[in-house]
Amino acid sequence: MDRVLVDTSVWIDFFRKKEPFYSRVLKLLDEDRICCIGIVLAELIQGAKSAKETKVLKDFTHVFSFLEESARVWEKAGELSFSLRKSGQQIGLSDCYIALAAYREKAAILTIDNHFNIIKEHLDIVLL
Fold first, then answer.
1. pLDDT-based confidence at 104, cuts 50/70/90?
2. Radius of gyration over alpha carbons of the chain, in Å?
3. Domain hosting residue 14, numbered range
4. Distance between the two ends of the chain, CA-based, in angstroms?
5. Share of the chain above pLDDT 70, in %
6. What local confidence, expressed as pLDDT, does residue 68 receive?
7. Does a structural domain hold residue 126?
8. 44, 11 in Cβ contact below 8 A?
9. Which of 34, 77, 88, 119 has the fewest CB atoms within 10 Å around its CB?
10. Bridge partners, 65 (sequence order)
11. Each residue of 72-103: b (16+ CB within 10 Å) or e?
């Protein structure tokens, strides 16, 4: 898998220069392997602390390729979230959507969010 979708939690550590993710993201940036998705961008902008941070984040649309998004992926994410909830696992819709979008586009996910380990039990995603 060449492309890597960096999850919101990892971007937060990257911007705080926290290891090991700061170095990992820098390496992926140098290799031009990072892709993004709208929900991750929206989550990052939502948590921005200043207009300067927001401006940097808005540049993501010019810097990274974005995964294809569709109503079908949202539908599948809802089904996955429903299925997980029925089996006793409470996984947020955004994490289900991120996992499905990455899966459909054959991108790995770089995350520290343990929800993706649960999703991996139900969907053949690649986690880094």
1. very high
2. 14
3. 4-120
4. 11
5. 99
6. 86
7. no
8. yes
9. 88
10. 35
11. ebeebbeebbeebeeeeeebeebbbbbbbbbb
In a domain, 125, yes or no: no
Write down the mean pLDDT value for the chain.
94
State the DSSP string of 52-102: HHHHHHHTHHHHSEE----HHHHHHHHHHHHHHHHTT----HHHHHHHHHH
- pTM: predicted TM-score of the whole model, two decimal places: 0.92
For residue 78 the two structure tokens come to: 């809802």
Q: Tens digits of per-residue pLDDT, 17-46?
A: 999 999 999 999 999 999 999 999 999 999
- Quick one: which H or E segment has residue 6? strand 4-6
Domain count, the chain: 1
CATH number at residue 64: 3.40.50.1010
